[in-house]
Amino acid sequence: MIHAESPVSAAPPIELVCPAGSLPALKAAVDLGADCVYLGFRDATNARNFAGLNFDDAAIAQGIAYAHARGRKVLLALNTYPQPETSALWRSAIDRAAAAGIDAVILADPGLMRYAADNYPDLRLHLSVQGSATNAEAINFYQRQFGIARAVLPRVLSLAQVEHVVDNTDVEIEVFGFGSLCVMVEGRCALSSYVTGESPNTHGVCSPAKAVRWQQNPRGLESRLNGVMIDHYTPQENASYPTLCKGRFEVNDETYYAVEEPTSLNTLELLPKLLAMGVRAVKIEGRQRSPAYVAQVTRVWREALDQCLHNTARYAVKPDWMAELNTLAEGQQHTLGAYHRAWK
User: Is the dihedral of CA 234, 236, 241, 244 positive or negative?
Assistant: First the structure.
């Protein structure tokens, strides 16, 4: 773990990229070993636009100073798509990021990439998972056109597909390692806006808090989204935040999680394979989660990464790592997701 009080010059073989929805979360991530912390502005330019989350200019300045003093990087998620009547907001976010000294901007929209590349040629650009690039040809296109330095892969690729992408591009590849899953190819989801009328690609959240309702009745707890019942929980079940893709539905007389189960991705066991492939960064999902969550996940993943880097051949996942992460997972359960292709 790096504890230097001044910036470091050499990047680690694989970076741990951790979420921050607040300044305390950023400090927790940095203190416990994140190589990079990613955050968003307090507006619709980021895909975690929840009330009470994210950063104003003063908080970002404090966060960057704190991270840089300890040799860590700060990335800005500018990963939603500009709307015609408010597009200046997104361009202004690029200006603010460059002025603040952000280490990289995570972008999905090609128009914003062009604006950034033309106006701030020294600003490092990462292709967001919301950009939906699932193959090397697409990633190489973004590199040629806009100078993209890193691409975040959607959570729908198998390990073999990830390896094929890494082998066929010079762009750094970042993958999700832990946190909530998305069964869709990010950036292409229309399902989430079906009930609420608001897309995460433009409004920054799958299920706006204003549309969420919880109702207790004699049978248990119901979750509703814009009046539509998404799930029903018995007193013994753990309730999860309602999104349409993670609801239980009746299909051919069977009621089950027909699209996606409420479970979290956890790829600790895949670290040696990801390292051998040449994956450059592992991302932890969860900017909407608490500083305590960020601290706990960062600490476990830092320890695991350090052990894997120190002796890859003898690396093994510790049961207490999994037990601790399962307490933070949706439904208190984990999966390898598309990496393993084990779903129904």
Answer: negative
Q: Where does residue 170 rank: exposed (0-12), middle (13-18), buried (19+ CB within 10 A)?
A: exposed
The rounded distance, in Å, linking the Cα atoms of 66 and 109 is 29
Is the CB of residue 292 less than 8 Å from the CB of residue 324?
no
Helix, strand, coil percentages (3-state) for the chain, rounded to 5, are 40, 20, 40
- For residues 239 and 214, what is the distance between their CA atoms, to the nearest angstrom? 10
How many angstroms from the chain centroid is the CA of residue 235? Answer: 31
Residue pair 192/243 in contact (Cβ under 8 Å)? The answer is yes
Q: Would you kindly state where each structural domain of the chain is located, as residue ranges?
A: 15-181+263-339, 200-256
Q: What is the pLDDT along the chain (344 residues), one digit of tens a residue?
A: 433 344 444 678 999 999 999 999 999 999 999 999 999 999 989 888 878 889 999 999 999 999 999 999 999 999 999 988 889 999 999 999 999 999 999 999 999 999 999 999 999 999 999 998 999 999 999 999 999 999 999 888 889 999 999 999 999 999 999 987 766 666 666 676 777 777 666 665 677 778 888 888 888 888 888 888 888 888 777 777 777 777 788 888 888 777 776 678 899 999 999 999 999 999 999 898 999 999 999 999 999 999 999 999 999 999 999 999 988 877 667 777 777 764 44
Pairing of strands 36-39, 73-78: parallel
Q: Say whether domain 15-181+263-339 belongs to CATH 3.20.20.70.
A: yes
Kindly give, in sequence order, each residue whose CB lies less than 8 Å from that of residue 6, ignoring residues fewer than 6 positions away.
69, 71
Q: Cite the DSSP H helix spans in the chain.
A: 23-31, 57-69, 87-100, 110-119, 136-146, 159-167, 193-196, 200-203, 271-277, 291-310, 319-326
What type of residue sits at position 44?
A
- For 66, list phi and psi in degrees, rounded to 5: -65, -45
Region of 107 on the Ramachandran plot (φ > 0 left; ψ -120 to 50 alpha; else beta): beta
Phi, psi of 68 (to 5 degrees): -65, -35
